[in-house]
Amino acid sequence: MIHDLTGSILKMDVLKYLSPEDTLALVPLLYRAVFPSGHHIYYENDPGGSLYFILKGEVAIELSGRQIRKYGPDESFGEVAFIDESIRTGSARALTDVDLAILHGSDLYDPLIVSPVIAMNLQRALAAKVVGYLRSTLMTTTRYLLMQGEGDRLEFKSTLRMNLHTGKFDKEIEHAVLKTLAAFLNTEGGTLLVGVDDKATVLGLEADQFPNTDRMMLHLTKLVSDRISMNHMSFISCYPDSVDQKELLRIDVSPADTPAYLEHNGEERFYIRTGPGTAFLKTSELYDYLRKRFYRVIP
């Protein structure tokens, strides 16, 4: 059992809903576990019943092999299966060496071990976190994004490589996609939906004439690797999605920690998002922007 983690537990995100007294009452129930980087903490369809608090390191929650969420120190995970003691709906994998404190539901719900009032208060805190997560998830579904229209963190492209006016593959179409991705990387991130026109009508992916979406994603990865850098692919997640039985490609981009330059016709250019558009920064504007945006990189 853990008896020396009071300071760490008081900082946990979900426990901020509890009084300090209730939180301290949980400390003797916690167990410690250490997982090396790459190790699975649990798998999809494993039995639930335990709640995890991250003391050190980072954990990825994965669904069907795709990372959907990342947690770090002072955060908890595993709430849903803990609340209803159901099976796990996703997998949890250590992204780094991870130090965890674990609470087992069998201890929490034993009235001889912990007060039922404290157990109920924790349930309410967990429910509040789950509801908040569900609300945020709903607001980032592809259907919801289509309803919002293009903005500083959302853009639509009809195709990845096909010029719909000429009916031919067009390098400038690819360049327009890469400009958007580079701008998202250099600003605050965003989502690019391919197979959607500027009126938010889902056209599908057939026009690009890839044999399947895997080949389409491989083509995109090669474009990013060749024209931006392979290192920046770690900030880009792409996967097929469908709306009204029409398939599209969703590309989610996180803000990069190093500048993303886009090579075009032998020159490197730096793009940022300005409202719903993408802008090229001139050399005279570049240093100040890099210093402010990537302050850890440029002194």
Account of the 3D structure:
The chain has 299 residues and is of the alpha+beta class. It has two domains: 6-138, Jelly Rolls (Sandwich); 145-293, 2-Layer Sandwich (Methyltransferase, Cobalt-precorrin-4 Transmethylase, Domain 2), CATH 3.30.950.30. The chain contains nine helices and 17 strands. It has a four-stranded antiparallel sheet with strand order 1-8-3-6. Strands 2-7-4-5 form a four-stranded antiparallel sheet, with no helix packed on it. The protein has a four-stranded mixed sheet with strand order 9-12-14-13. The chain is elongated and about 75 Å long. It starts with 5 loop residues before the first helix and ends in a 6-residue tail after the last helix. The model has no long low-confidence stretch (mean pLDDT 88).
Task: Look up the CATH topology of the largest domain.
Answer: Methyltransferase, Cobalt-precorrin-4 Transmethylase, Domain 2
Q: Can you tell me the number of structural domains? A: 2
Q: Report the β-strand fraction as a percent range.
A: 25-35%
CATH superfamily of the largest domain: Schlafen, AAA domain
- Subunit arrangement of the protein: single chain
Order of helices and strands: HHEEEEEEHEEHHHEEEHEHEEEEEH
CATH architecture of the largest domain: 2-Layer Sandwich
Major β-sheet strand ordering? 1-8-3-6
> What's the Cα radius of gyration?
23 Å
**Top-tier CATH class of the largest domain:** Alpha Beta
Major sheet details = 4 strands, antiparallel
